[in-house]
Design a protein that fits this description.
This protein has about 450 residues and is α+β, with helices and mostly antiparallel strands. The protein has 2 domains: about 5-290, Pnp Oxidase, Chain A, CATH 2.30.110; about 310-420, UbiD C-terminal domain-like. It has 11 helices and 20 strands. It has helices spanning about 5-15, 30-35, 65-70, 80-85, 165-175, 190-195, 205-215, 290-310, 340-350, 370-380, 385, and strands spanning about 20, 45, 55-60, 95, 105, 130-135, 140-145, 150, 155-160, 180-185, 220-225, 230, 235-250, 265-275, 280-285, 315-320, 330-335, 355-360, 385-395, 410-415. Strands 5, 6, 7, 8, 9, 10, 13 and 14 form an 8-stranded antiparallel sheet that branches. It has a 5-stranded mixed sheet with strand order 16-17-18-20-19. Helix 4 crosses helix 8 and helix 8 crosses helix 9 (about 340-350).
Length: about 450
């Protein structure tokens, strides 16, 4: 199994999952447009970027198959693999020599092929940037995704969600009148990105989770200015500090493919930029499949693990594509007792607080099929009996229909399972023996 982005690209190519773009492309919308057209298809490697010596990779973990490849498992084993990695997180080895990224050094951001994605965004964004910072309380390192917009050659805004781990580190440093020294990586093995997207508990080690996903093969290198340790094979590493006394106004497209409202965000000041020879810059197209997989699949895995621990009848758990792999969940149950669907709904909302809708279906319904879930609603659901509505509760900041100032929303749970009081034969889907093995080519000319 590969341990860095380049090795992963080789694995993708060997599996027929990588498309190479040889013609020259622009960072001004063109890379975003091609990536959008390829959404749900192959990963892309743009080999000739106008005005840059960098190549650009996109859509690396944009399908369940590629997400599973990055995690070192099959598609059906993603949730088990994630749970195993969280339980078995272990400190990565420290590289004695400097990281491979130390081979080239710059003092400004202008060389980076930062992509402009959408017409009404205020500028181009680094969308795969992971910020690594020391927790001022414990001294432990936190690593998490934060999109960044260059302001000038040495500064970039940093999108932080209030209350999340980096924001807590930043506020703790700011309360002391200090800037927060950090390192920022772009272009790491997607297993590292997956670990960085996982909403681990405060103080947990994302790099330990990444190391477990990579079979103990992750190697870290020291960044002296920031006092952090980052993947030694990272393509790009930026060291600097998040300023305690400066903000920049920005807004961006989020997972729902809608524009977030404008915010004053903290500003990162570059000290030094490092990169590998013939570097590869990773771009994630906001609101499209890779963004949703990287953010949604770890949340889905956490939901799967928590629900199965509490409810032995739970089968598959899915965050739906229509719900942007974030706001809507479908939970399958195989056999149950009266009242269990409602308890599952309540627990799901507690585990993944951004959920807006939870639908519980029987074991014969594929939760990944919107058509089959709608079939369950049509044949097994009664609105006056099976609907659970909760008003004025905490919701997702991404949902434009919610009260975004107070982060309050209404949530709905749907019990679309067969009523236990009715005869089961009335809900059995009729099948034709042998139909699955029929090939029309053998019959129709």
């Amino acid at each position: 199994m590969a341990r860095d982005l380049r090795g992963y690209l080789e694995e993708l190519e060997g599996a027929g999952e990588l498309g190479r773009v040889g013609r020259a492309v622009s960072t001004e919308y063109e890379i975003a447009a091609v990536t959008a057209r390829a959404d749900g298809g192959k990963a892309l490697l743009f080999e000739s970027v106008e005005g840059s010596e960098f190549r650009v990779a996109a859509n690396l973990a944009g399908t369940r198959r590629r997400f599973a490849m990055a995690a070192g498992c099959g598609e059906g084993g993603i949730h088990g693999r994630m749970a195993e990695a969280v339980r078995g997180a272990s400190p990565p080895a420290r590289r004695g020599a400097p990281g491979l990224f130390m081979r080239n050094s710059r003092t400004d951001l202008s060389a980076l092929p930062v992509v402009r994605h959408f017409e009404k965004e205020p500028g181009p964004f680094m969308t795969s940037s992971m910020v690594h910072a020391r927790n001022p309380e414990s001294g432990e390192q936190n690593s998490s995704f934060h999109r960044m917009m260059p302001v000038d050659g040495s500064h970039a805004s940093v999108r932080m969600v209030e209350g999340r781990h980096l924001h807590r580190c930043y506020e703790e440093a700011r309360s002391r009148g200090d800037d927060l020294r950090v390192s920022v990586t772009v272009g790491v093995h997607p297993a590292v990105s997956i670990a960085g997207a996982y909403q681990a508990e405060w103080g947990a080690s994302e790099m330990g989770v990444a190391n477990a996903l990579l079979g103990g093969r992750l190697e870290l290198a020291e960044c002296r200015y920031s006092g952090t340790a980052v993947p030694a094979g990272a393509e790009v590493v930026m060291e600097g500090r998040i300023l305690s006394d400066r903000t920049s106004r920005e807004w961006m497209v989020e997972m729902l493919q809608t524009y977030d409202h404008a915010r004053e965000q903290p500003v990162f000041e570059l000290e030094r930029l490092y990169h590998r020879d013939e570097p590869v810059f990773h771009d994630v197209l906001s609101g499209y499949s890779e963004h949703r997989m990287l953010m949604g699949m770890p949340a889905e895995s956490k939901l799967d693990s928590e629900l199965k621990a509490g409810f032995p009848h739970v089968g598959q758990v899915r965050l739906t594509d229509g719900g942007c792999n974030w706001l809507h969940a479908v939970v399958q149950v195989r056999g149950r007792d009266e009242g269990e669907p409602r308890r599952i709904i309540e627990r799901a909302f507690l585990v993944h607080r951004s959920l807006k809708q939870v639908t519980v279906v029987d074991g014969d319904i594929d939760p990944g099929s919107a058509e089959r879930v709608e079939y369950a609603l049509a044949t097994r659901f009664q609105a006056d009996r099976d609907l659970v509505v909760t008003e004025d509760v905490r919701g997702s900041s991404l949902d434009p229909s919610s009260d975004q100032e107070r982060l309050r929303t209404a949530k709905v749970g749907i019990d679309a399972t067969r009523p236990l009081s009715k005869r089961p034969e009335g809900f059995e889907v009729a099948r034709i023996p042998g139909a699955e093995g029929i090939s029309l080519d053998d019959y129709v000319r």
